[in-house]
Amino acid sequence: MWFCSTLCEIVVGIMVSNGVFCYGDSSTVLQAQEEIIEMKDVFSVKLKRRRFVGQKNGGTLLGITIFKCLNKEGNKLTDCAVHLNNLSEDHCQSWFRHLKEILNGFQNRPKSLKVFVNPSSHKREAAHVYYEQVAPLFRLADIKTDVTVTEYEGHALAVLKECELQAFDGVVCVGGDGSVSEVAHGLLLRAQIDAGKDTDYIPTPVRAPVPLGVIPAGTTNILAHTLYGIKHAVTATLHIVMGHIQPVDVCTFSTPSKLLRFGFSAMFGFGARTLALAENHRWMPSSQRKDFAFIKTLADLKPEDCELSFLPLQIPQEDSRESDRKKKEKIKKKGSKDQWHKIQGHFLNVSIMAIPCLCSMAPRGLAPNTRLNNGSMALILVQNTSRTEFIKHLKRYASVKNQFNFPFVETYTVQEVKVQPRPKSGLGGKENTHLNPASAEGNYPWNIDGDLMKEASEVHIRVHPQLINLYGVDTDDLESSQATCNCI
Q: Considering 168, 171, 173, 353, which has the largest number of Cβ atoms within 10 A of its Cβ?
């Protein structure tokens, strides 16, 4: 066996009988006369020894093993082990130290992580996902972890306010979109507190101090799909291990008197009332609860009476997709950057999204014309229409067709939005309050990243460019999503 190396790559000559053996999701055995391994793809190196059963230390030295990240079809990543046989203790120790020095030179790769696991997410599978699929890869990459299994809503937020964040290179959340949203909010809130900001009013928030990693273990997993192009725990873990960093825009949601929370996306109207109804039936299994809430809210489809004010983006993004031409024309007609525009009316749904929000139910994204970090939000207004037409609009999300190509749907690229609900008066305001008890109490439900928030007053949404780093990549650079949906 011979070796030769540069700082950027190692060329390893391997006898066919040794081969290259892949683990993780791969069951294939690759065989090659010569394998080129770039160090940017390597995340761990170990001394390989033969040990007897029960033996923990020592053993006969067989060589070294290099673990690398391997790209597979469908945006998946897996780990791959390359075994290099050499019985010389001196040679192996020398190569081991040299390779470890190179790996330690990658600045974005975490060496210590704070991990939050939500055991209640989806099918209560988060703990299993973490300990069976994620933790072994962290150990393999020599990443130290401090794990908190959350016990109640707001637990992660409470821990983040008090913990020593400077001891960690990143924070990881294992759970669904609601859990991730809570951790992201906690990270950003902690940043404002550390910077001495007034947390009731933050027009210019400071950035999160460390990156956030997302391990999908929920139902929809919008952030995971948006960052990785797939719901796959091993892929998400390897993006974290490899230190793939993606700056992402974040929104602040506030009333005239206080900050409500940080978030990536929000829905008011149908999307929020569906979530509110699902939360009122927590005793039902997760999938049944959400199906029930969706059908029940659709059966009692009613618009929200509200006033919308928004500040358009002055210069539309050049890389926007198909419906951007229509949005550019609207923005040019509406006026300049500093001019607020108002729309009053009845809306079945209002979506405000700073990220594309990909998921299996919407493979193109709930807001396909925005990006992770282009400094803008997509404002999507669905005006009052018949139930049949609204269902047609919903079905479009699961196809490759333009879901906004309806006369009752309007889209805008904006920097700020204000939503002011207008309370119903008379007998009509008392109808079907069992479907929306929050409205009956004067509070209107909001769906912020899958978390329910209730607010009676005007909500002001601002986008803040690249406010947080997430472990992941720009999905525009990945393969097209193959996800399909038959849920409607």
A: 173
Contact status, residue 31 vs residue 16, Cβ threshold 8 Å: yes
The pTM score is 0.83
3-state secondary structure of 479: coil
Radius of gyration of the chain (CA): 25
Name the phi and psi angles at 169, rounded to 5.
-90, -15
Using the Cα atoms of residue 330, residue 334, residue 338 and residue 343 in order, give the sign of their dihedral: negative
- Burial annotation 12-50 (CB, 10 A radius, 16+ → b, else e): bebeeebebebebeeeeeeeeeebebebebbbbbeebee
- The whole-angstrom separation of Cα 8 and Cα 259 is 47
* pLDDT tens profile 119-173: 887 678 889 999 999 999 999 999 999 999 999 989 999 999 999 999 999 999 9
CA distance 374 to 327: 16
Separation CA 75–CA 230 (nearest Å): 7
Instruction: Encode pLDDT of 250-280 as tens digits.
Output: 999 999 889 999 999 999 999 999 999 988 8
Cα–Cα distance measured from residue 393 to residue 405, given in angstroms and rounded to the nearest whole number = 8
Question: One-letter amino acid identity for 266?
Answer: A
Whether residue 81 contacts residue 42, with contact meaning beta carbons closer than 8 Å, is answered with no
Give the torsion sign (CA, 83, 84, 85, 86): negative
CB 444 within 8 A of CB 421: yes
Q: Alpha-carbon distance 215 to 226, whole Å?
A: 12
Euclidean distance between CA atoms 407 and 145, whole angstroms = 52
CA 116 to centroid of chain Cα atoms: 15
Dump the DSSP string for 368-411: TT--SSSS-EEEEEEES--HHHHHHHHHHTTSSS-TT-STTEEE
Edge-to-edge strands, sheet with 29-30: 29-30, 20-22, 77-85, 60-71, 42-50
25: three-class secondary structure by DSSP: coil
- Residue that the structure tokens 């879901």 belong to: 403
What strands, in cross-sheet order, belong to the sheet with 9-13? 3-5, 9-13, 34-38
CB atoms within 10 A of CB 287: 11
